[in-house]
Amino acid sequence: xxxxxxxxxxxxxxxxxxxxxxxxxxxxxxxxxxxxxxxxxxxxxxxxxxxxxxxxxxxxxxxxxxxxxxxxxxxxxxxxxxxxxxxxxxxxxxxxxxxxxxxxxxxxxxxxxxxxxxxxxxxxxxxxxxxxxxxxxxxxxxxxxxxxxxxxxxxxxxxxxxxxxxxxxxxxxxxxxxxxxxxxxxxxxxxxxxxxxxxxxxxxxxxxxxxxxxxxxxxxxxxxxxxxxxxxxxxxxxxxxxxxxxxxxxxxxxxxxxxxxxxxxxxxxxxxxxxxxxxxxxxxxxxxxxxxxxxxxxxxxxxxxxxxxxxxxxxxxxxxxxxxxxxxxxxxxxxxxxxxxxxxxxxxxxxxxxxxxxxxxxxxxxxxxxxxxxxxxxxxxxxxxxxxxxxxxxxxxxxxxxxxxxxxxxxxxxxxxxxxxxxxxxxxxxxxxxxxxxxxxxxxxxxxxxxxxxxxxxxxxxxxxxxxxxxx
Length: 472
Known about the structure:
CATH architecture of the largest domain: 3-Layer(aba) Sandwich
Number of strands: 21
CATH superfamily of the largest domain: Glycogen Phosphorylase B
Number of domains: 2
Radius of gyration: 23 Å
Distance between the termini: 16 Å
Shape: elongated
Helix content: 25-40%
C-alpha cells in the first residue's frame, strides 16, 4: 500500500509533542511490513542542521489556487520517504506550533499550505501513474486535508484533542476553506471554526491514540463542544494503542547504558543502578529503591505534583532522581533549590538529552508518570521497556498500558491512582515502595519487561483501518 502521512512534526528532526515520535515509529513499522510510506511536512528553519538530507526539486509544485510551493525530497535511514513544502506566502518557522509558550500567528495559513501542497502532490503522482492510495493525517495541522477537493481517502488520527485549531471564521476565509457551505458547517463550533472538528467529520476513518482516548473524545465533560459534536454526528473513533520504537528504546542494545539487559537477564539491570548511583554519589545500598521521574519539567507531565510530594517522599528509605528539562521555570527552581541539594537521597539532573532519561529509567526500580493530560501512555511504556515499574494516573493511554497490581503482585504491570492530586500520587508511590520488599517483585519486573510494546501490532491495525477507509 502506498501511503502519504501528513504532519507538522517528525522525530527526531522537528518535535513538539509525542505525535512526532508516533509518526516516525509508525511510518518505519509500516515500511518494514512492506508498505511504501512518505511523510510530508512543512520545511522548517534550521531543519538542514538536524541531519535530514533532502534535495530541492527544480520545478515548483502548483497548487489549486494558482500559487506554487518549493518541494524538497529525501529519505530516512528506515526507507521512509520525506517531502518538505516551502511557500513564500508563509515564513519559515523553527518549531511546529510556536515558541516561548505562544503559538505562531500564521499557523492556520502554514498548515493550510501544507495540506494544499499534499493534495497537489497526490494529484501529480496520480498523473504520473504512481498514486498514493491513501492519506494519513495527524492532528489539526493536517485536519484540513479531508475538507479539500481532490484529497484521496483520508484517515485522521487525533493525538492531542486539546489542540483543535480553533479560530475565527474570518481567518479561514482567505484560505478558501469556507466557500463550501457544507465544509463551513462541519467546521463550525459555536461561533468559531474548529479545524479538528471539520476534519473528524470529513475523514473516512478517525482514530485516537488508545481505546480509552477514543471513548474520551466523545465525553463532553472531557472535551466539551467538540465531544458533543462528535457524539451527535455518531463518528466512529477507533482507538489504537501505539507502541515503543525498539530502534530507540531497547535496553539490550542501548549504547547509552553502562550495562545492557533484557527480560531474560533482568539481574543486569542492577548493574545500571549501581553505575548511576556511583556517578550521582548516592549511598550504595542495593535494596534501597530508586524512584525516578524522567520526563518534561512541566505541569502537563505532572512535574508540579512530583515537587509537591518530594518533602514527604524523601523521609522514606528511598533514593529519588528527577531528570528532565522544560519551560516551567518555577518548578525547575524548586528542584534545584539549596534545600534539596543538601539531601543525600535526592538528585536533580536538568537535561533535555533523551539518552540521559533512558539511563535514569534503566537504573530505576519505580518510575513516576503522573501526567494528567497526555493521552498516549507513551512514557509509561518506555518505563516498562526499561524495567522501571510505573506509577501513573488512571487516564486514557495509561489505563490501556497498565494493569493495576494486586496486593500479592501475582497480576499487574504497574500502579494506577484515580484521583488527580499529589496526595494520590504519593499514596500510589508508597504502595509501589511497599511492593519492592515483596518476594514477587522480581517476577513483576520481569513480567513488565516481557510485555510486547513494539509497533508491529499497532502498524498492522493501522493497515486494517487503511483498508477500511479505502472500502468506504
